[in-house]
Design goal:
Strand content: under 5%
CATH architecture: Up-down Bundle
CATH superfamily: 23S rRNA-intervening sequence
Number of helices: 4
Radius of gyration: 16 Å
Largest sheet: none
Helix content: 55-70%
Structural class: mainly alpha
């Protein structure tokens, strides 16, 4: 298996980006754009899902990467809760909710699998490779 050199190559980050690309544009349209608190929260959460994966990877340590993935996983659960609020307020159709929720589940599963792999691995990370 080839070593991943940049966070953009991580499948979990790519899936998180896909999730963001599906939902983020809706925050610029009614009725979401008028609900300032909800709009800001969901935008922040979407960004955090991706950003914590990238940040953890970029720290160059297996354990810090795991921490970033765990944070991303928590943010993904927060997004799921926000999706329920959005659906309850009729911001999303049932079809959109189901699509978004399933994508969020995929991100969670990918995060969980990568965390499990890293927990069993002897990989130290770039920062510690020569120690």
């Amino acid at each position: 298996m080839a070593t991943i050199q940049k966070f953009e190559d991580l499948k979990v980050w790519q899936k998180a980006r896909e999730l963001c690309q599906k939902i983020y544009p809706l925050t610029f349209t009614e009725p979401i754009c008028s609900d300032f608190r909800f709009k800001d929260q969901i935008r922040g959460t979407l960004g955090s899902i991706m950003d914590n994966i990238a940040e953890g990877f970029g720290r160059g340590s297996r354990l810090e990467f795991i921490t970033g993935l765990n944070t991303s996983r928590g943010e993904t659960d927060e997004l799921k809760s926000q999706l329920y609020r959005g659906a309850d307020n009729k911001y999303f159709s049932n079809e959109q909710f189901n699509e978004f929720y399933e994508l969020a589940n995929e991100v969670t599963k990918m995060n969980t699998s990568l965390i499990s792999y890293l927990n069993k691995s002897n990989i130290k990370g770039q920062r510690f490779k020569d120690r």
